[in-house]
Backbone:
């Protein structure tokens, strides 16, 4: 089925676009419906959006997965179910890093860009690690919107938003209503495009641990029976304590 773009011709492309990039929605970019996706601001099929995202993650420098609190903490059975296919995705991307966004409180200038992506200054993590393709997943939508704009404004990173809600206009590629089944489908598409001849830039490499990923033993295994991040040692209390310590040192 051919899907027509309901928005304007404005293209959401990797930046840097400047210090104040326009919000894509203001430029006429519309959110996709179920079965659709966004690619550079155009409404396309869900499959096309995922294929372009897969190719970007396989061929651009330093591909990175940014799981947010809705992915990390396993608040509900639904969020826990999404963790196992998340690791399927990670295992299909040679040389991938996993850098979490565990907390939305501002931690700049204490941020360790190898350990965490900070929604207030996400560009620091992108710049430091020279990331040219990333996936935001499990990040609350209002923080994802701000984060995506900052990344697009100051970096050349190809951003992908696998959103549990309506999708994100400011990502280069976005799919709405993403649950465990769609995450597993993204892993399938990664396998498919490799079979079709897309050569991964980091062929032969596995998951590259970074920062708290090392503490959490995120070496490519799904951990406990539930496969949730919280079962891999990334406990809420321990991680929260580290962040609070950094914040306390900077409080007036």
Residues:
């Amino acid at each position: 089925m051919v899907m027509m773009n309901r928005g304007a011709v404005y293209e959401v492309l990797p930046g840097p676009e400047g210090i104040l990039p326009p919000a894509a929605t203001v430029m006429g970019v519309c959110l996709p419906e179920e079965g659709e996706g966004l690619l550079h601001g155009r409404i396309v099929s869900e499959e096309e959006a995922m294929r372009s995202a897969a190719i970007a993650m396989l061929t651009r420098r330093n591909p990175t997965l940014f799981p947010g609190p809705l992915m990390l903490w396993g608040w509900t059975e639904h969020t826990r179910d999404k963790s196992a296919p998340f690791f399927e995705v990670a295992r299909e991307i040679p040389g991938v890093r996993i850098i979490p966004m565990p907390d939305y409180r501002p931690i700049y200038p204490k941020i360790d860009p190898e350990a965490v992506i900070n929604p207030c200054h996400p560009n620091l993590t992108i710049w430091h690690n020279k990331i040219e393709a990333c996936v935001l997943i499990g990040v609350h939508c209002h923080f994802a919107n701000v984060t995506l704009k900052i990344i697009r404004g100051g970096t050349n990173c190809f951003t992908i938003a696998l959103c549990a809600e309506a999708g994100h206009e400011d990502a280069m590629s976005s799919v709405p209503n993403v649950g465990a089944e769609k995450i597993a489908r993204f892993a399938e598409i990664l396998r498919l495009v490799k079979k079709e001849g897309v050569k991964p830039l980091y062929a032969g490499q596995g998951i590259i641990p970074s920062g708290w990923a090392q503490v959490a033993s995120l070496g490519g295994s799904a951990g406990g029976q539930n496969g949730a991040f919280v079962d891999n040692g990334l406990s809420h209390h321990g991680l929260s304590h580290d962040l609070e310590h950094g914040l306390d040192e900077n409080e007036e």
